[in-house]
Amino acid sequence: MTKIFVSGHRGMVGSAIVRALGRDSKKWEIITKTRTEVDLCDQNQVGNFLRDEKPQFVINAAGRVGGIHANNTYPADFIRENLLINANLIHAAYENKVQRFLNLGSSCIYPRDAAQPLQEDSLLTGPLEPTNSAYALAKIAGLEMCRHYRNQYGVLFHSAMPTNLYGPGDNYHPENSHVLPALLRRFHEAKESGLDEVCMWGTGTPRRELLHADDLAEAMLFMLGVDNPPDWVNIGTGKDRTILELAQMVKEVVGFQGIITHDLSKPDGTPIKCLDINLLKSLGWEAKIELKEGIKSAYTDFLYGLEQGTTRL
């Protein structure tokens, strides 16, 4: 049995990874810790924890995340916390002889104007999207740390870069959430309030690729089984849609009968972001959950969370 620590297990991605690992309980001994138990921004706490627990594998799914508004409003918090989490975990994993470290990056680390679809070798070839540059720089540092520790020390530290994610346990905050949970909440509340319209940020023309968190979790476990993985690999579906198309899909799933309008004073963000997934496919993995079905399951989870008082609002 392999002892594995999953950081950020209370988040959407971390909880999906824990669920996936739990389906093979004879193979994995799962370790999780809350922030009150181990503060990942504290180097001493992280080092002592890995020294005492001695996990063989680590998946780093911890981090401060948010949408355009959150990234624009709290850039200092985003860069500081994510740099500390990555630096502390990666170095402590090396010091405590962790056999394998799989780091979670983000597709937002690619240059704003990189050629589409985004290939792994596009990293660091141009300026970042200004609205999330603080978060992106911290994530880039984590990828580069894994690469350099692997090159210098011979450790098997590598990274995965997922596209935009959604699924159970998502954050539905009205200002700090990502596009799909924000749309789900807005359309649901408009339906419940009997409103005639839902107003979207921006033009609705930017294109986004979406991956269900359970698909990402399966991809992460798949990557743990690759003997000689690339330093980083894109994880996505390879398919994108305009934000307006996503809104229309959410509108249908929720059952909202009104119209969609636009607040053109709000930013669009990155105009297009779709990942090239040929490297991942060549390794032998592809996503399975279709977007429409994934949105339906996310909305079901959202409604259940409202009933139970567990939805992150």
Write out key terms for the chains shown.
six-stranded parallel β-sheet; 313 residues; 42% helix; 13 strands; 10 helices; alpha/beta; Rossmann fold
Fold and architecture overview:
The protein has helices at 12-22, 43-53, 68-73, 75-95, 133-153, 179-193, 213-224, 243-254, 278-283, 291-308, and strands spanning 2-7, 28-31, 57-60, 100-104, 156-162, 164-166, 197-201, 207-208, 210-212, 232-235, 241-242, 259-263, 272-273. The chain has a domain at 2-169 and 210-238 and 272-289: NAD(P)-binding Rossmann-like Domain (Rossmann fold), CATH 3.40.50.720. The chain is α/β, with parallel strands linked by helices and 313 residues long. Helix 1 packs across helix 7 (213-224), helix 2 (43-53) packs parallel to helix 4 and helix 6 (179-193) crosses helix 8 (243-254). Helix 5 (133-153) links the parallel strand 4 and strand 5 (156-162).
CATH C-level label of the domain at 2-169 and 210-238 and 272-289: Alpha Beta
Structural class: alpha/beta
Distance between the termini: 38 Å
Secondary structure: number of strands: 13
By DSSP (H or I, 4+ residues per run), the number of helices equals 10
- SSE sequence, one letter per element: EHEHEHHEHEEHEEEHEEHEEHH
Largest sheet: 6 strands, parallel
| Percentage of β-strand residues | 15-25%
CATH architecture classification of the domain at 2-169 and 210-238 and 272-289 = 3-Layer(aba) Sandwich
CATH superfamily of the domain at 2-169 and 210-238 and 272-289: NAD(P)-binding Rossmann-like Domain
Q: Specify the helix fraction band.
A: 40-55%
In the CATH hierarchy, the third-tier topology of the domain at 2-169 and 210-238 and 272-289 is known as Rossmann fold
Radius of gyration: 19 Å
What is the typical, i.e. mean, pLDDT? 94
Q: What is the molecular shape?
A: globular
Write out the strand line-up for the largest beta sheet, numbering strands in chain order: 2-1-3-4-5-10
Low-confidence stretches: none
